[in-house]
Amino acid sequence: MSARLYLVRHGQTPSNVAGALDTALPGAPLTELGRDQARIVGQELAQEGVAPSVLLSSEAARARETAGLMSEHFRLGDAPMPTQAVPGAFEVQAGDYEMRTGAEALLAYNRVVRDWLEDGDLTSSLPGGESALDVQDRVMPLVSELRDSFLDNGTDAVLVVHGTLMRMVAVFAGAVPSRWALVNRIPNCGVIELAPDRGGWSCERWGDHQGRPTF
């Protein structure tokens, strides 16, 4: 089997519980449940034979903590696998809605994502936030770098990031239809598994869906 890129959503945070739009760095830490989720997904991936040389994450506190807990199940010799935070992999920014809760804020954020994935308006953004083009410009060079540096050399890459960002990466990579990404969200510590497919990518796993999704 060829090397794969595993995008892992961070574990649960207090902001997730409160329904707060927590997108700016450094963000909230994990809850106790979130820490358990991180350990479980690390154990599951290790048991599947996923074999990275380092566990990568966004710079957000919740992603760093998730990667650190996952590393307990990946070993390099007698030590846990090292972790490394990488720039550019933070969540899609909520702008002026940052840390707001309630239906109005969540609907506004989700409306922008719908503009991107259903209507194809990649320039839409929240006040002070990002457009899909902004997100693409900052994250897809990282995806290309991971492919060149790890996958093309036969090594899996594991990147702990954020739910909306993960869905957008899969769409930008051409691995899933935009409508699929819109209606199928990623749970805490859910995984999107992407495999190189000639010059592009194929999706081999999506969140709670078992095996390769059908579209």
Structure, briefly:
With 215 residues, this protein is an alpha/beta fold.
Overview of this structure, please?
The protein has 215 residues and is of the alpha/beta class. The chain is 37% helix and 18% strand. The strands form 2 sheets. A 6-stranded mixed sheet has the order 5-2-6-1-7-8.
* Helix coverage percent: 25-40%
N-C termini distance: 23 Å
Low-pLDDT residue spans? none
| Mean pLDDT level | 95
How many helices in DSSP terms?
A: 7
Task: Kindly name the structural category.
Answer: alpha/beta
Strand order of the largest sheet: 5-2-6-1-7-8
Write down the Rg: 16 Å
Q: Can you write the helix and strand succession as a string?
A: EHHEHEEEHHEHHEE
Give the beta-strand count.
8
Please state roughly what percent of the residues sit in beta strands, choosing from under 5%, 5-15%, 15-25%, 25-35%, 35-45% or over 45%. 15-25%
Main sheet, how many strands, which sense, barrel?
6 strands, mixed
Shape: globular
Write the layout of secondary structure elements.
Elements: E1 5-9, H1 14-18, H2 32-47, E2 52-57, H3 61-70, E3 75-76, E4 79-80, E5 83-85, H4 103-117, H5 132-149, E6 156-161, H6 163-172, H7 178-183, E7 191-197, E8 200-206
Keywords:
alpha/beta, globular, 7 helices
